[in-house]
Amino acid sequence: MSLNILKNSSEIDEGFLICSNCKTEFPIIQKIPIIMEDFVTYIGSRRSLGGRLHHLANTTMMKQFIRNSLSKIKKTHSDDYSLVEERWSEIYISNRDSSFYSALKNKLSDFPSCDNVLEFGSSVGIVSSFLRKRHRNVLCVDTSFTATLYAKKKSFENLDFFVSDALNHPFGKKKFDLILALNLLEIVEPTEILETISKQIKDGYIILTDPYDYTRGKNSVKSPLYSKEVRKKLRSIGFVITKKTNQPSYINWSLKINPRTKLVYQVDLIVGKK
User: Fold this and answer.
1) Is the dihedral of CA 30, 36, 40, 44 positive or negative?
2) Could you read off the pLDDT of 231-266 as tens digits, one per residue?
3) Dist CA 117 CA 138 (whole Å)
4) Domains of the chain
């Protein structure tokens, strides 16, 4: 990757990451790299986000890049996923003091300090802001620009965020000491994300949490895995499940959606070691 910096302060505010092989340009907007395989497709399914990115862009070159990208969108998407992502960002922010996060942070406190940590599905940064206090470098990936922009507001030298697909992340063959995938298996194919994570860990830990809520209609995954199947898959790719999480044990996660509606999940926690 090479860099074309358009605006710079304590870090790169705006610019492009450019693939050395294919010359694809990945925009950096509001200090957030958007490393999606196809940027046009990404904003094509998030129509209102395209206009927002154009508004947030500071330089003429970036605004032109976004306008050009918007002009290439084929009007085939009926849904605007950015509206869904905005709504769920609001829900997670308003529930950031949930007992689920308190229980999870207590579990995370048992881990030794690590040099390199990766969180998939970092959303608004509730867990990552805790991780950065205990570990040397923390990298976070989520597909939602809205959630990532909120998380990025709390900027620290050892914490960085990327908008990217978990299955096509930008870290290549880099190895991590600890990787988290929290409540992600309903939206990313479970077998594929577990195999992706396995390739990034040579000697370290994986932490998974999930309610196994595979009732999302067309947006759900094609091949769901449940508690026993997830553990079986982890063992098959080289992980040893810790004794305390060898059997399913669930953490309550209550999400207040609005004054009259609440979602209550039972979230399974799994810790694996290579």
Assistant:
1) negative
2) 999 999 999 999 999 999 899 999 999 889 999 999
3) 5
4) 2-71 (no CATH), 87-273 (3.40.50.150)
